Amino acid sequence: MIRNAKTAYRIHQLKATSTRTVWKTIRHHNTHHKPIPPLEGRPDFHGKCDVLCATLFPAIDTEQQIPLPLCLLTSKKDLHHQTRGVSINETQLAISHLKYSTSVGSDGITYSTLRRFNDAVPHILPHLFTACLKYAIHPSEWKTANCVVIPKPGKKSYSDPKSYCSISLLSCFGKLLETIVAKRLSQTAQMCGATHPSQMGAQPENSTIDALLRAITPIANSISKKKTTNQNPTWPAVLTLDIEGAFNQVNLLTLLEVIHQRQMPTYLVEWVAAFNTDRKIAFGSDRQSEQPQPYRCGLPQGSPISPILFLIYSNAMLEKQHYPADAIDTSYVDDVCMIQMSHTVSRANTHLEERTECHLENGIHLGLTFATPKTELLYCLPLTSKDKNKSLSSHSPLRILNTTIPAKRQIKYLGVFIDKSLTFSYHAAMAATRGNKILGSLSFLWHHSQGIPTCIAHQLAMTAILPAMFWVSLAWWAATPAVTATLKVTYNSVARWITGLPLNTRTTNLLSLAHLPPMEAYLDYLSLRYAIRLHFLPANHALGPPCRQPNTHASLPGLHHLYNLSKHLVQGKLED
Predict the structure, then answer these.
(1) For the chain, first and last CA: distance in Å?
(2) What SS3 state is found at 272?
(3) pLDDT of the residue at 457
(4) Contact criterion met (CB below 8 Å) for 543 and 529
(5) Under DSSP, is residue 63 helix (H, G, I), strand (E, B) or coil?
């Protein structure tokens, strides 16, 4: 009787699911609270908090760090006398771009409350924020973070504090001001030369896709070149690195000196100093929460201003005096990708070692270095090359920080698996697996022949399954048969899950009843929409508009592929 009652309640719950309640249903189903086991022999709650704080937010050793030499950095423009208050339009623009689903901080004030308050009295917030910038004040209530600890999936042991990631919940009031200051810092950093266009993320008109295209396009152009009798072709070697510690390794005094030497506005320097001092954090886990405790650790997690501050800080490490055509650098926050074109592998390794050593020397003054366990190396070759199946151990070794970096068949950069010939077959297999995994996690929404309405299943497919499968597809999709065949199996499975139709249903009927477009048309549409955006980028953007590359193979992704999709629109040959 109890089992029948549970089944009846479950069927009723699924039938009553709407577009607003489906995420609540999924969240309740996926919530399985498990207490954190003892960490480093500390079973009590406060002991676990101390261990997590020391591991996730380690204190910076400032005594061993070499001070930043005076006049080490240069500036393109002197802006240190510039000052400006916060206007009503600036505040309204920042509020209009806020994510209203963001969790609140310790004060409990939501973004919706701030929006309604600003609509009622639009002059209060600008006056308040102007005073904060003028007198270099960031209230202590805005510098207290509630830290929620979440276990990382797939870890062997959760008794290790490194098996957890933290989510810092800050005051929405403070984050609104930080959003305004972050935009100002980004603009002044570009004017002063404190950031470079090749640094993606935390800057306007930049995204993960831009960083991937900047890395993939030169590789595609290079491996498409035909071998001539006069000279050997140049093949690209790709080295991906990760700045160790990232936000946690930023020294406040050194950061202020970097901003000062870049001759950025003094009022921003003073406010950043107030923003990043006397911060507190309160850990919460096992349904308990501690009192806020002071801590000193780099840039605060979860703040809108931390990414741009890190770009300014890390640029002092990654900055180069010269930018030769055969050496391409791209970075997305703390993920760095270095491409070296060369005739031989040994010569490419030599150049990569020299470039890396130059960055490491600059990083000594900043306390920054690269994490060698996360460093990956890839030698790219054309699909028809005779050396494609050559043993990777036959190549000369590349060494960084006294560690040998072995070459791989494919490397992972910004969530995309890049193989040596840019076929992306391995990445397509991983993307299909990811889609099947999410599809399996949603199977509980069906109970035999009954479940959620078809429109709700379609919404989940478009907002949860397909975005995970086609993550940054604009950078790797080129409609090749191998990738298409791999992804289509999962795509059709999603359509079958939406409709509940049997396996022998024709694909055209299946997609029509599921209200899904053909997969190739859907991915081409996403690429075309992005390609149109590229034609309206600023002149100083690292990518620039897509252009024709007649020598690049049509089956390879990159800017040339986006150009082929959008050239008819740009030339005005399509009526619509």
Answers:
(1) 62
(2) helix
(3) 84
(4) no
(5) coil
Q: Considering just the CA atoms, what is the radius of gyration of the chain in Å?
A: 26
159 is written with which tokens?
């008794």
pLDDT computed for residue 324 by the predictor = 81
Q: What are the tokens at 346?
A: 């040994």
Specify the residue for token string 């009787």: 1
Q: How far apart are CA 253 and CA 270, in angstroms?
A: 11
Q: Give the per-residue pLDDT at 318.
A: 92
Give the pLDDT confidence score for residue 345 in this predicted structure. 87
CB-based contact 345:226 (threshold 8 Å)? no
The predicted pLDDT at position 180 comes to 95
Please report the pLDDT score of residue 4 as a whole number. Answer: 66
CA angle 60, 62, 65 (to 5 degrees): 115
* Strand arrangement of the beta sheet that strand 335-342 belongs to: 199-200, 327-332, 335-342, 235-242, 376-379
Residues of the chain with pLDDT under 70: 1, 3-33, 62-65, 226-231, 388, 444-451, 570-576
Q: Are 142 and 171 in contact (CB under 8 A)?
A: yes
- Residues whose CB is less than 8 angstroms from the CB of residue 391 and which lie 6 or more positions away in sequence, other chains included: none
pLDDT given for residue 549 in this prediction = 77
Query: What b-and-e string marks burial along 43-61, b requiring 16 or more CB atoms within 10 Å of the CB?
Result: eebeebbbbbbebbbeebe
CA 548 vs CA 126, 347, 438, 567: distances in Å: 47, 30, 38, 9
Tokens read off for 21: 């309640």
**What is the residue-wise DSSP string for 464-477?**
IIHHHHTTTHHHH-
127 burial class (0-12, 13-18, 19+ CB within 10 angstroms)?
middle
Give pLDDT, residue 574.
Answer: 43
- Exposed (0-12), middle (13-18) or buried (19+): which is 175, by Cβ within 10 Å? buried
- Residue 378 has φ and ψ, to the nearest 5°, of -140, 130
pLDDT at residue 101, as a whole number: 74
Tokens 């305004």 identify what position?
A: 180
Neighbours of 24 (CB within 10 A): 11
